[in-house]
Design a protein that fits this description.
InterPro entries: ACOX_C_alpha1, Acyl-CoA_Oxase/DH_mid-dom, Acyl-CoA_Oxase/DH_mid-dom_sf, Acyl-CoA_oxidase, Acyl-CoA_oxidase_C, AcylCo_DH-like_C, AcylCoA_DH/oxidase_NM_dom_sf. The protein has about 675 residues and is α+β, with helices and mostly antiparallel strands. Helix content is about 55%, strand content about 10%.
Length: about 675
């Protein structure tokens, strides 16, 4: 027989000890716990009373109205809302009906916004992705990738011929870049486009199975055109009368009949089938067997072929043309970074609302407490909530810079956007992918129910880490750009706005840490934006200096490629550190620019938590170089705990400020106080 059943008092003591152990997870406030979920003890000190409306207005910015239009439209159309259980074939057809209804019935024209007001386009993409991530990606394929390639790589004749059809969905299309054997290494694509001077046509051909275009969105079912990236081959133009390879160019290739939807001659398409997620997007594989297209179908902004087969370009080398071509496609990365933050907002909102509602255990003879009152749950979710705010402002800055780039075509801004979009896309999507799983775990068994969305969010978002550039590859681009800037600094070159802190960092930031400031541990000092930003930038600068020295050393024996590979993890850490510095700088700017004093104070609290949590997570780096003394490290840890507790006190208002309707949240456990009622109704009670 169980000992506890033999001795009731012993069983009571065991239960009491368990409760006492659990209570150690709680941050103990100065006031006794009342058992009421609405009582937020941390307000007793700061008395923060966030205005959800003011905070939401500042977050949403100028495009709140168009997002509301999208939500209202889909809310009014239950037939266009994606059910939890749906087959791949049904999901694909639903996605096509959704995007068609958005354009033709709701009157929202994303393509026009992409061209005329990119900031509004990305706001539309975030809202549409909230309705169904598959719909958001299908919209991106149609307008940003297929449409964007025509607009950005083509010239006036292409815009005049294709703009309206892309805009009104008469011309659904694909973006055929990735091949079976080559994804990230675009310069090594094998599909060919050989000019035939006799017929004035390009012959598009797949020379081997490795060159089959793979994972092409819109290809399996709905696409009628494709932007095909291929090697432009000019017969008899090379040395000794051989063919000349002019590098990667894009071509408009019709793949299905506009009227009958039948595959055109020479085009072979196979369905990539059921995927881990995003099954509303019809991915296909394309093989071309000597498909002929008119010479005008070359998207010729950066290189053209005349009637007699002569090649001309304003850019002198294959590498420069390639860089210009890919540079014009950076909008896809901007959109993914921005949309990933939208997914993170949904996951965090569900987890925070559930954690506030769910009550488990409590002090003896007292009501059970919210699981968000446990320090362990706060450590999981509050820094994540702070990061969500940080990423929101950082990606909004990226969108603004992208809009500036499209208006000005300024070379410095172009370089800035290219590196920043690579870094933010990589960092934010990786963080969101990890965070969705953490949010699921934070909601216990109920988080595992499909209706509560975490599985759908995780599976649909997971590929964000791969397409539009593998995250590890993109971080290497950021590191490479940092090293380039590092070299330019010593040559007296100018630095673009995102990188200009490196000029100062190479002197003051890398000087010996001040023994006095290394020991300052007061709250005012630790919450000073200058201390926080200096700490982030010091770490980046030290990593940059050390990896540059390592690369120089290893290149002597291993060569440049071998040295890069030997230092690869160091380079990835450098890139992430730099992106974190940029994120914090943009968050601090957003706090300072907030016009409402109360909202500004709330954002300052959240920003401090983001900064100090990141410093604490890498405290070993700061301790190793005596940038932070032992007592200061303890003070950072203690203050981070306290800030997490304070943010917990306003967590409901912070997630409510994301202004996400139930249409987007969908999870019964993440909607409102009646969540359990909705949840039980869902399973049939």
């Amino acid at each position: 027989m169980d000992d506890n059943r033999q001795n009731p008092s012993s069983g009571h003591e065991v239960a009491l000890r368990r409760i006492q152990r659990l209570s150690l997870h709680l941050y103990t406030p100065s006031e006794p716990h009342s058992g009421e979920l609405s009582l937020l003890p941390c307000r007793a000190k700061r008395n923060l009373s966030p205005s959800v409306e003011s905070l939401s207005e500042y977050m949403r910015g100028p495009h709140r109205e168009i997002q509301a239009r999208i939500f209202e439209f889909f809310q009014s159309r239950p037939d266009l809302q994606t059910p939890v259980e749906i087959s791949m074939a049904e999901h694909r057809q639903l996605c096509m009906r959704q995007i068609t209804a958005l354009v033709r019935e709701a009157g929202i024209r994303p393509f026009r916004y992409l061209v005329e007001n990119p900031s509004a386009y990305f706001a539309i993409a975030e809202a549409v992705g909230g309705v169904d991530i598959s719909l958001g990606i299908k919209m991106g394929v149609q307008f940003s990738l297929w449409g964007g390639s025509v607009i950005n790589l083509g010239t006036k004749k292409h815009k005049e011929k294709y703009f309206d059809g892309i805009d009104n969905l008469d011309y659904p299309g694909c973006f055929a870049m990735t091949e079976l054997h080559h994804g990230s290494n675009v310069q090594a694509l094998q599909t060919t486009a050989t000019f035939d001077p006799i017929t004035d046509e390009f012959v598009i051909n797949t020379p081997n199975d490795g060159a089959i275009k793979w994972w092409i969105g819109n290809a399996a079912v709905h696409g009628k055109f494709a932007s095909v990236f291929a090697r432009l081959i000019l017969p008899l133009q090379g040395k000794g009368g051989k063919s000349a390879d002019m590098g990667i160019h894009a071509f408009i290739v019709p793949i299905r009949d506009l009227e009958t939807h039948v595959l055109l001659p020479g085009v072979e398409i196979h369905d990539c089938g059921h995927k881990v997620g995003l099954n509303g997007v019809d991915n296909g594989a394309l093989r071309f067997s000597h498909v002929r297209v008119p010479r005008d179908n070359l998207l010729n902004r950066f290189g053209d072929v005349s009637r007699d087969g002569k090649y001309t370009s304003s850019l002198p080398t294959v590498n420069k043309r390639f860089a210009a071509t890919l540079g014009e496609l950076v909008g896809g990365r901007v959109g993914l970074a921005y949309s990933s933050v939208g997914v993170l907002k949904i996951a965090v909102t569900i987890a925070v609302r559930y954690s506030l509602l769910r009550q488990q255990f409590g002090p003896p003879r007292k009501p059970e407490v919210s699981v968000l009152d446990y320090q362990s749950q706060q450590h999981r979710l509050m820094p994540m909530l702070a990061s969500t705010y940080a990423f929101h402002f950082a990606t909004q800055y990226l969108v603004d810079k992208y809009s500036e780039m499209k208006k000005t075509n300024d070379d410095q801004v172009i370089g800035d956007v290219h590196a920043l979009s690579a870094g933010l896309k990589s960092y934010v999507t990786s963080y969101t992918a990890r965070s969705i799983s953490t949010c699921r775990e934070s909601c216990g068994g109920h988080g595992y129910a499909a209706v509560n969305q975490f599985g759908i969010l995780r599976n649909d978002h997971d590929i964000f880490q791969t397409f539009e550039g593998d995250n590890t590859v993109l971080l290497q681009q950021v590191a490479g750009d940092l090293l380039k800037r590092y070299q330019e600094k010593f040559k007296g070159g100018t630095l673009t706005m995102t990188w200009n802190y490196l000029r100062e960092s190479m002197s003051s930031y890398l000087s010996q840490p001040n023994p006095v400031t290394a020991r300052w541990e007061g709250e005012d000092h630790l919450r000073d934006p200058k201390f926080q930003l200096d700490a982030f930038r010091y770490r980046t600068s030290r990593l940059l200096q050390s990896v540059a020295a390592r690369l120089q050393k290893h290149s002597k024996t291993l060569g440049s490629f071998g040295a890069w590979n030997r230092c690869l993890n160091h380079l990835l850490t450098l890139a992430e550190s730099h992106i974190e510095s940029v994120v914090l700088a943009k968050f601090i700017e957003a706090v300072q620019n907030c016009p409402d004093a109360n909202t500004r104070e709330v954002l300052k609290l959240v920003c401090d938590l983001y900064a100090l949590d990141r410093i604490w997570k890498d405290i070993g780096t700061y301790r190793n170089v005596d940038y932070v003394a032992p007592n200061k490290a303890k003070a950072i840890h203690k203050l981070t705990d306290y800030l997490s507790f304070q943010v917990r006190g306003i967590a409901r208002e912070l997630v409510d400020a994301f202004d996400l309707p139930d249409l987007v949240i969908r999870a019964p456990i993440g909607m409102a106080s009646e969540a359990y009622e909705q949840y039980t109704q869902h399973v049939g009670f």
